[in-house]
Structure to design on (263 residues):
C-alpha cells in the first residue's frame, strides 16, 4: 500500500457504526479521524455507536464530533420528506471538518445500491470533498471500500491499494469482529458468520481501498432498481415500513440538491 495512505492526516467516513470492521487493520495503522453518520439503532436494535467508539480508542484513532449523531430513522425521514437542507448541512459540516483538520486522505462507504444510508454517505463525501477543493484549492486522496461481498471485489480497479495485516493484527481483527457481532447479535452475527463461511478466513487478511469511483455508477439506478428499493417494497408489503425509498423519486433529488450531476 502507498505509504501516503497510512502516514497522512486521514478521515474515515461511515454511514453506520460497524463498517470500520471491514478496514480495522488500516484504521489501526493510519489512525484516522472517524466520522459515523448514524448510531446504528433500528426498529428492533439498540444503538451500537458505543462499540465503535471503543474500537476507535483501541485502534488509536480519533472520534470526530459527528459520531452517531443521527438515527437511520431520521435519515430515512429526511429522504422521504426531501429535506435537502438536512443533507446540505451534513455535507457542509464534513467539508468544514476536512478543512480544519487539513485532511489529506479520505476513506469511506461506497455506492452499492444496498442501503440508502451507505449510498448517501458516499454522496455526502463526494459533495464535501468538492466543497473542500473549492475553498482550499487542495485535493485529498479519496478512497472507498465495499461493504457487501468480498473485500477484494474491486482489487482490479485502477487505483486499488491493499493493506495486508500481519498475523497479530489479523488475530486482533478477528477477535474484535466476533466480539462486536456477538454483542450486537441478530443479523450482524449471522452476516459475520456467513461472510467467513463463504469467503474463508483469508478474507480478513487483505483490506482493499479503491480510488473513489462508485459515485459515477449512480446513474444506472435510473433504469435498474437498487437492492434497497426492491427490499423496501417487500417490507412495505409485509407491513414493516409504510413507504419504500425509491431512487428516482427520493434519492435522485437529494443527490441533485447536493450538487451531483448524473449525466
Ligand atoms: Zn451499514
Amino acid at each position: 500500500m502507498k505509504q501516503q495512505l497510512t502516514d497522512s492526516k486521514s478521515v474515515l467516513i461511515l454511514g453506520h457504526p460497524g463498517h470500520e470492521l471491514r478496514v480495522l487493520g488500516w484504521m489501526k495503522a493510519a489512525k484516522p479521524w472517524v466520522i459515523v453518520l448514524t448510531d446504528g439503532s433500528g426498529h428492533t436494535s439498540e444503538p451500537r455507536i458505543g462499540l465503535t467508539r471503543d474500537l476507535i480508542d483501541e485502534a488509536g484513532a480519533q472520534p470526530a464530533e459527528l459520531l452517531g449523531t443521527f438515527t437511520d430513522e431520521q435519515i430515512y425521514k429526511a429522504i422521504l420528506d426531501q429535506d435537502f437542507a438536512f443533507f446540505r448541512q451534513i455535507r457542509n459540516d464534513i467539508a468544514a471538518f476536512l478543512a480544519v483538520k487539513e485532511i489529506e486522505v479520505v476513506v469511506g462507504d461506497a455506492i452499492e445500491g444496498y442501503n440508502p444510508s451507505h449510498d448517501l454517505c458516499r454522496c455526502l463525501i463526494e459533495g464535501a470533498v468538492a466543497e473542500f477543493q473549492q475553498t482550499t484549492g487542495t485535493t485529498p486522496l479519496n478512497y472507498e471500500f465495499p461493504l457487501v461481498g468480498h473485500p477484494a471485489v474491486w482489487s482490479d480497479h485502477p487505483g486499488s491499494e491493499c493493506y495486508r495485516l500481519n498475523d497479530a493484527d489479523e488475530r486482533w481483527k478477528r477477535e474484535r469482529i466476533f466480539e462486536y457481532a456477538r454483542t450486537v447479535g441478530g443479523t450482524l452475527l449471522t452476516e459475520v458468520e456467513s461472510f467467513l463461511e463463504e469467503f474463508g478466513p483469508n478474507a480478513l487478511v487483505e483490506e482493499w481501498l479503491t480510488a473513489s469511483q462508485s459515485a459515477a455508477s449512480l446513474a444506472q439506478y435510473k433504469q435498474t432498481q437498487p437492492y434497497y428499493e426492491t427490499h423496501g417494497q417487500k417490507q412495505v408489503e409485509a407491513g414493516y415500513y409504510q413507504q419504500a425509498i425509491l431512487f428516482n423519486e427520493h434519492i435522485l433529488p437529494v443527490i441533485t440538491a447536493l450538487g451531483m450531476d448524473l449525466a
Summary: The chain has ten helices and seven strands.
